[in-house]
Design a protein that fits this description.
Blueprint lengths: L1 H29 L2 E10 L7 E7 L15 E4 L18 E7 L16 E4 L5 E12 L13 E2 L3 E4 L4 E4 L5 E11 L40 E5 L9 E9 L1 E8 L2 E6 L8 E6 L6 E11 L8 E9 L12
Parallel strand pairs: 1-10
Antiparallel strand pairs: 1-4, 2-3, 2-5, 5-9, 6-7, 6-10, 8-9, 11-12, 12-15, 13-14, 13-16, 16-17
C-alpha cells in the first residue's frame, strides 16, 4: 500500500512540474511579443471603397490577426484619425497583429525578424497622402490601444511613395499606424477646336469661326482638420484641445455637451486652441466635441471631431508655470 502511494505521489509531482514548465515557457514566449494595428482613413472618397494591404510579419503562437503574410483589405473609416474610436481589431476599418519583437533591451538578440513591414497597394482614383504611427509601451503586459494623442514612434521608417511602413517593435509595445488616402482630382478631356474649311479666293462662303480656347478646370483644394488634446488621466492641470488643418474658417468647441467657445481665426501658431484647466472639472470622464467649417471653395463638408479625458482621484496633477 505504501509503495503504490509513493508511486502515485511521484507521478503527480512529475505531472505538476511538467505543467509548470510548459506554463513558464508559454509565459516567456509571450513576453517577446508586441502588437501592430493598421487603420485606414478615407479622406473624402466613397465610403464603401476598400484598400488592399500586404504584411510581412512574424506572429506570436496565438496568431492574433491571422497570417503574417496573407493580404487583407480595409475600408476607410468615416472619421479623421483624431476621432478614431473604433475598438481594437474592429473590421473593416483596422486590423491588429501580435508580432515577434525586433527591438529593445528585453527583446532576445537571436531570432529577431528581419522585417516587420506592412505595405498598402496602389488604389486607382486615390493618392496615399499620409502615414502616421503612434505607440503605447506596457510593462509586464500591454498598455491600452494607441490614439492620436499617444506619442509618435521614432522607430517607424515610412516610404509614402511605396505605401510601406517598416517598424521596430519592443516587448509589450503597441504601435498603431493610420494610412490616409485622398481621392485624386480628375481632369476632363479638352476637345480640340475644329479646323476651318478651306475656301477659294472668290468664294462667298462665310469666314471660318474663330478658334476656341480651351480653359483648364479649376483645381479644388479640399479642407482637412485634425483634433489633438488630453487623453486618459492628464498629469498636468493645464491642457488644451487643438485643431490643425487647412481651409478652416470656423471652429466651435463643446465640453460635455455645452458650447464654450467659437473661433473664426486661428489663435495659436496657426492652430485653433481651447485651453482647459483639469482642476476645474469634476472627477470622472469628460468629452470634448468640435465642429469645423471649411471655406466654400474647398467643397468640403463640415466635420465633427471628438476626444475624451478623465480627471482621476489617483492622478497627481502638477500645474505648469511659465516665465
Amino acid at each position: 500500500m505504501t509503495i503504490r502511494a509513493s508511486r502515485g505521489v511521484r507521478l503527480l509531482t512529475a505531472a505538476a512540474m511538467a505543467w509548470l514548465g510548459l506554463a513558464l515557457c508559454a509565459q516567456a514566449a509571450h513576453a517577446t511579443y508586441g502588437k501592430v494595428t493598421i487603420a485606414k482613413v478615407n479622406n473624402g472618397g466613397t465610403a464603401s471603397d476598400t484598400f488592399a494591404f500586404t504584411p510581412a510579419l512574424t506572429l506570436s503562437p496565438a496568431k492574433i490577426g491571422g497570417s503574417g503574410t496573407a493580404p487583407f483589405d480595409l475600408t476607410g473609416a468615416p472619421n479623421t484619425p483624431s476621432t478614431d474610436t473604433s475598438p481594437y481589431d474592429a473590421p473593416p476599418y483596422e486590423k491588429t497583429f501580435e508580432v515577434l519583437c525586433n527591438a529593445g533591451a528585453n527583446c532576445p538578440a537571436t531570432g529577431r525578424p528581419s522585417k516587420t513591414t506592412v505595405t498598402e497597394l496602389p488604389k486607382t482614383g486615390y493618392t496615399l497622402t499620409d502615414i502616421s504611427c503612434r505607440y503605447t509601451q506596457g510593462g509586464s503586459t500591454f498598455a491600452g490601444e494607441p490614439t492620436t494623442g499617444s506619442s509618435a514612434t521614432t522607430d517607424a521608417t515610412v516610404n509614402l511613395a511605396n505605401g510601406t511602413v517598416d517598424l521596430k517593435v519592443a516587448v509589450h509595445e503597441w504601435v498603431k499606424c493610420w494610412y490616409t488616402n485622398t481621392p485624386t482630382p480628375t481632369t476632363p478631356p479638352v476637345t480640340p477646336p475644329t479646323p476651318p474649311t478651306p475656301t477659294t479666293a472668290n468664294s462667298s462662303a462665310p469666314a471660318p469661326p474663330a478658334p476656341q480656347i480651351a480653359v483648364s478646370p479649376v483645381r479644388v483644394r479640399p479642407g482637412s482638420a485634425r483634433l489633438s488634446g488630453p487623453h486618459g488621466c492628464p498629469t498636468t492641470s493645464a491642457v488644451a484641445a487643438s485643431v490643425s488643418g487647412r481651409r478652416i474658417v470656423k471652429v466651435t468647441f463643446y465640453v460635455d455637451g455645452k458650447k464654450v467657445k467659437t473661433l473664426t481665426h486661428a489663435n495659436r501658431n496657426g492652430r485653433w486652441v481651447l485651453p482647459m484647466n483639469v482642476k476645474r472639472f469634476s472627477f470622472g470622464t469628460h468629452r470634448v466635441r468640435v465642429t469645423v467649417q471649411f471655406a466654400k471653395s474647398s467643397q468640403t463638408k463640415a466635420k465633427t471631431l471628438r476626444l475624451s479625458f478623465s480627471r482621476c482621484h489617483g492622478a497627481n496633477v502638477t500645474p505648469k508655470f511659465t516665465g
